[in-house]
Amino acid sequence: xxxxxxxxxxxxxxxxxxxxxxxxxxxxxxxxxxxxxxxxxxxxxxxxxxxxxxxxxxxxxxxxxxxxxxxxxxxxxxxxxxxxxxxxxxxxxxxxxxxxxxxxxxxxxxxxxxxxxxxxxxxxxxxxxxxxxxxxxxxxxxxxxxxxxxxxxxxxxxxxxxxxxxxxxxxxxxxxxxxxxxxxxxxxxxxxxxxxxxxxxxxxxxxxxxxxxxxxxxxxxxxxxxxxxxxxxxxxxxxxxxxxxxxxxxxxxxxxxxxxxxxxxxxxxxxxxxxxxxxxxxxxx
Length: 285
Ligand SMILES: [Zn+2]
Prior knowledge:
Layout: H1 9-13, E1 14-21, E2 24-36, E3 39-44, H2 46-50, E4 70-77, E5 84-90, E6 112-116, E7 122-123, E8 143-148, E9 161-167, E10 181-186, E11 196-201, E12 204-205, E13 211-212, E14 218-228, E15 235-239, H3 242-249
Antiparallel strand pairs: 1-2, 1-4, 2-3, 3-6, 4-5, 4-7, 8-9, 8-11, 9-10, 10-15, 11-14, 12-13, 14-15
Zinc ion binds near residues 251, 252, 273 and 280.
């Protein structure tokens, strides 16, 4: 009997994606599958699908300003782990309107979701979203893994590569106001945008300050990697997991996890919709 090969479940979660304008390949990146309320979504960065810088909205393709209109995803072939099947996903409708789901604050948040449907050709290996709540404190200087496709490279077919970095800013502080992201220091490369970021340790600090020593390997999902903050910097942004809930629910969420403070019921909604808070993100459906 050949030895059974062990593959980390998170290695099956990251997927290699290619961005196209018609038949012209523009770029490659990373996405991952997430299950939310029994539905599946492909998660990646806004700048990846929009072809524009999420801060400035400037074209990433400086020469021709090519904006992708479709996505080619290498999904896992049904029942055949280690085999992949490329599937095309349209990014824009006939009028050029995006088919992905943005955050209520639009490109201010560099994360998007694309609804995907299971077929009898492909298998999904969604990330366990409850890993965002693992009782491990993400402290500065701790190592993290970014699971993606540096320079479009992959292993044994289309398996991702685990790059390592370190938490470079206090996790509870936002990168800048209204941008719930923290920084990591990692020698990441192009095409890693959209990778899930996790911390994994067997000795760590719990959220209450107590230590767990040799507790068995624990994993916490820390968010979505979105590339380096400048070309010359090793510093990159990781967007927090609760933003994915806000994208799928299409509203801002006000609780301890998000740290958002609810305004009064009759004030304008902070999502910028021009509606009153009580009729928008603050409505109790
Ligand atoms: Zn709102």
